[in-house]
Write a structure and sequence with these properties.
The chain has 516 residues and is mainly alpha-helical. The protein has a domain at 3-128: Rossmann fold (3-Layer(aba) Sandwich), CATH 3.40.50. It is built from 23 helices and five strands. α1 (18-23) links the parallel β1 (3-7) and β2. The longest helix has 24 residues, at 264-287. The two termini are 44 Å apart.
């Protein structure tokens, strides 16, 4: 009897899995995960991401085995694997979730669909997020209403499957993968159990501090949900996270005011807004895949590209800009694979404005560092922080102001930049202002123990903002601006209720990768 293949991609769970649930009703099921060298050796992939996926696959294999479903994991390109499976056991149907990934995965999905048509194999994809495939603009569809309906759809039940009679083996050339950096010990662990633990802990205990604690790198590690990698790699479905959040909102809203936990209801509603913005940004890449490579607004083409400096980008990527909060954030991100949204936005803003780097290469650097990298969010957000979307206000983060606002005592900076441990708090955000005798007394001579700033910060910011403002003014009201608004801008209207608060009109708060 032909086997139903459930092809796992960024949906590494057995529970709440639409493709698996439906495939199990059509015959014996085989799970398949293919670690494709073309995808995993791309410039946006990293060992830390694979480490998270590997741990998730180990747990997924056990969960599928309990349902009677074997999981085949192999390293190869996908089409040769499918061909061998079809020759060996016969593929009755191929099932997967829709993925809004990078150009490589898009081309692969097109090739798979074409091969399935040639072989007469039904290839069915189920929705993973509240993203609408084939949508060309926001004006003609009530996107928010569609998102709400999808999130409220009953979650698919986990069900046992028929056992495949044959356990296939593959005869494919051995392939190894090589990354620029090794996996890291400080990242979050992969797997559904860890995701469920984070969800329960956040909604049950940590959520009251969410709104007030998410901006500072000191408090964000506890205040934020830390669910982003589990959503990005599909250990949790977004719908189950949303439904759990709505249930928590309803429970809190039903309490008499004296019994409510301070800040809890507002934080729950704020968190749910970000779940919607998650899909809103992925929809941009779904609608316009070129965002991975080209400016969202073509009027900004050529603004920075011709002045790109690889040495400056390298110093920024290593955390050697001479601006302490920037460097501390980069060191922290490199070591842990995570950073809160405001600091992510600041890193991209610093690359774009005082360093005047075109967004593409810095975006790839950050993609490799983020364990929770989500292509559908990442590139649109990188462009937004660089000011080239044509539909968002220009946001420029001043790193010394951010240091004083978000790390006033220098706790975070000292933790990640031990060379600055003895610098007085009054100079910690701007150590280049220290007199030379004080530098020597503190044991941190600039240019020897800690870098001199790459450029004069205030001068570079003034110059970059002037150049950007001039370009923006020249494009105001242009046909290209209208095109971007029509295809990619939000069309949400405020529609708040006591239990299910929806995002407000306008642009979202500046954030990169929408760390949840």
């Amino acid at each position: 009897m032909p086997v139903q293949i459930v092809w796992f991609k960024r949906d590494l769970r057995a529970a709440r899995h639409a493709a698996l649930a439906v495939a199990a009703t059509h015959g014996p099921v085989l799970g398949l995960y293919v670690r494709e060298p073309s995808v995993w050796c791309a410039p946006d992939a990293s060992a830390r991401q694979w480490g998270f996926v590997r741990e998730s696959l180990q747990e997924l294999r056990a969960a599928l085995a309990a349902l009677g479903v074997p999981l085949l994991v192999t390293t190869a390109e996908l089409l040769p694997v499918l061909r061998q499976l079809h020759d060996n056991i016969g593929i009755g149907g191929l099932w997967a979730h829709e993925e809004t990934g990078n150009a490589l995965t898009f081309a692969r999905d097109v090739a798979v669909a074409g091969w399935c048509r040639e072989q007469g194999i039904a290839f069915r994809e189920c929705r993973q997020y509240g993203v609408i495939r084939g949508l060309t603009g926001r004006r003609h569809r009530r996107w928010a209403g569609e998102w709400e309906r999808f999130m409220a759809t009953p979650l698919p039940a986990t069900m046992a499957a028929q056992v495949a009679q044959e356990r296939p083996s593959l005869d494919l050339p051995a392939q190894s993968l090589h990354w620029r950096e090794p996996d890291i010990a400080g990242r979050q662990p992969g797997g559904r159990r860890a995701g469920l633990t984070a969800l329960t802990d956040f909604l049950g205990a940590r959520v009251p501090t969410y709104r007030r604690g998410m901006s500072s790198p000191l408090s964000a590690a506890q205040a934020c949900s830390r669910l982003s990698p589990y959503i990005a790699w599909g250990c949790l479905s977004l719908a189950e996270v949303d439904q759990a959040t709505c249930a928590a909102i309803d429970t809190e809203a039903a309490l008499p005011t004296p019994l409510r936990t301070t800040g809890r209801l507002a934080s729950l509603r704020a968190f749910r807004e970000r779940l919607a913005w998650h899909c809103h940004f992925i929809q941009k890449l779904e609608t316009e895949p070129s965002l991975e490579f080209r400016n969202m607004h073509s009027g900004y083409d050529g603004l920075r590209e011709g002045e790109f400096r690889a040495d400056v980008c390298g110093a920024w990527a290593r955390g050697e800009t001479g601006w302490p909060l920037v460097d501390a954030c980069m060191k922290s991100l490199t070591a842990t694979g995570w950073l809160n949204f405001r600091m992510r936005a600041m890193l991209m803003s610093v690359a774009a404005y005082p360093l005047w780097l075109h967004w593409r290469e810095p975006a790839l650097v950050l993609a490799r560092l983020f364990t929770d990298y989500e292509p559908g969010i990442h590139f649109a957000q990188a462009q937004m922080q660089s000011g080239v979307t044509g539909i968002n206000a220009m946001r420029v983060y001043h790193p010394t102001k951010q240091a004083r606002d978000q790390d006033p005592d220098g706790v975070f900076i000292r933790r990640w930049l031990p060379a600055l441990a003895n610098v007085p708090a009054s100079f910690l955000a701007e150590p280049w202002r220290m007199p030379r005798p004080l530098q020597q007394k503190c044991g941190v001579v600039l240019g020897r123990d800690y870098p001199e700033p790459l450029t004069d910060l205030d001068t570079a910011l003034r110059c970059s903002k002037t150049r950007m403002a001039e370009r923006r003014a020249s494009l105001a009201g242009s046909a290209e601006t209208r095109r971007v608004v029509e295809r990619l801008a939000s069309r949400r209207r405020a529609d708040h209720t006591a239990s299910r608060a929806r995002p407000r009109d306008g642009n979202p708060a500046p954030q990169l990768n929408l760390e949840l």
